[in-house]
Design a protein that fits this description.
The complex is a heterodimer of chains A (191) and B (174). Chain A has one domain: 3-Layer(aba) Sandwich (Rossmann fold). Chain A is built from 8 helices and 8 strands; from the N terminus they run αβαβαβααβββαβαβα. In chain A, the strands form 2 sheets. Chain A has a 6-stranded parallel beta sheet, with helices on both faces. A two-stranded antiparallel ribbon of chain A has the order 5-6. In chain B, helix 1 crosses helix 2. At the A-B interface, helix 3, helix 5 and helix 8 of A face strand 2, helix 3 and helix 5 of B.
Chain lengths: 191, 174
């Protein structure tokens, strides 16, 4: 099975000016472990918020690449947002769902993706036609390229091993995360 | 008599909004239509109101201002997502059309209508209420100033008496 840390590390290597929203839990920690960057916005809560937050950035900054990295639990909670993304169809938005089929932060209870739910099919049914499931190294290599530079909107559901790793906690001060993101992404200094 | 509806649109434009997120409500229909027609506005139809809270946080991260249009029932859908706006001090303006009060016929609207303001205030929003047409525009303008200068959540509650209660053909039981 694919390893989530390695997958995210490859996804964010030499990222250019890409803007990243990380969904709560392990996805945040994976993005932080790949190298902290002020253009990462880490969600420590607001479950279900990663995809719509990424959409808001993508619509505001249509010339910039926007990548959402989140988990299956967060994506399931905002399943309707696939339809909103499909309707708005932003070409600059890419969504990577690290699907370990578990609620990793709460004891590893299985999510619906372990019991038949197919997030890529849900995204496609919501209007995000470019949706795929990634299970192998070769598929991951192709998906990284698409997520980084393919015409969006697109969704890659990366099936990863259920093990989680600790030892990489990003800052959780919300106003700080917001201000540093806007400073790095937009060059504005909020008072 | 409906000039206040255009007053909201003008206040939104004057505030520099470019993203209008909404779950439709009859009380907002004219505003939604004008937003869709305006080439400088992105009118984003949501599947649930909480998407709009996160969407507009993203908008601000990307340097854009927004507004969330919703009905009082939709405030209940936003509760946890409002923690995003509150924890990170995102500016957020919510324009809430009220149901479950003046002349309401649908009892299912009563629970949220009766508690909309309390819910919003518990979530850290500052609420303004409009029941008179002449107050609407300046109240919406004030909400934008408040939210964007103080990095906070401002909600304008548009009373059902102002909007006009939904009328059905069926005669009232009394």
């Amino acid at each position: 099975m694919l390893n989530r840390r390695e997958a995210v590390s490859r996804l964010l290597a030499d990222r250019g000016d890409m803007l990243v929203v990380a969904g709560l839990g392990q996805s945040c920690f994976d993005c932080f472990a790949a190298g902290d960057d002020p253009r990462n916005f880490y969600l420590w809560g607001a479950m279900g918020g990663a995809v719509p937050a990424g959409l808001g950035i993508a619509l505001a900054q249509p010339e910039r690449r926007v990548l959402v990295v989140t988990g299956d639990g967060d994506a399931l909670m905002s399943a309707g947002a696939f339809a909103t993304v499909g309707a708005e169809a932003p070409e600059n938005l890419a969504i990577c769902i690290l699907d370990n089929e578990r609620y990793g932060e709460t004891g590893g209870q299985v999510t619906h993706t372990a019991r038949g739910a197919d997030l890529a099919a849900m995204a496609a049914a919501g209007g995000v036609g470019k949706a795929r499931t990634v299970r192998t190294e070769a598929e991951l290599a192709d998906a990284v390229g698409a997520l980084r530079s393919g015409a969006g909107p697109l969704v890659a559901v990366v099936k990863v091993a259920p093990e989680s790793e600790l030892g990489a906690l990003p800052p959780q001060d919300g106003p700080h995360l917001k201000r540093r993101f806007r400073a790095a992404a937009l060059g504005v200094e909020d008072k | 008599m409906d000039e206040w509806r255009d007053g909201i649109f003008e206040a939104i434009k004057a505030a520099g909004v470019t993203q209008v997120a909404y779950v439709p409500d009859a009380g907002h229909s004219r505003l939604i239509e004008r937003s869709i027609e305006d080439n400088d506005l992105r009118a984003v139809s949501l599947t649930t109101e909480e998407e709009g809270v996160a969407l507009l946080a993203g908008a601000w991260l990307g340097g854009a201002k927004g507004v969330l249009l919703l009905q009082s029932s939709g405030v209940g859908n936003c509760v946890n997502m409002l923690s995003l706006a509150r924890t990170c001090a995102f500016p957020l303006v919510m324009l809430v059309t009220m149901r479950g009060e003046w002349g309401e016929f649908n009892s299912w609207q009563k629970p949220m209508g009766a508690t909309t303001r309390a819910h919003l205030e518990l979530c850290g929003a500052t609420c303004y209420r409009c029941d008179r047409p002449e107050d609407v525009r300046e109240t919406v303008e004030s909400a934008f100033r408040f939210a964007y200068f103080t990095n906070s959540i401002a909600a304008v509650l548009l009373g059902q008496r102002l909007i006009g209660a939904k009328v059905f053909e069926e005669p009232a039981p009394c």
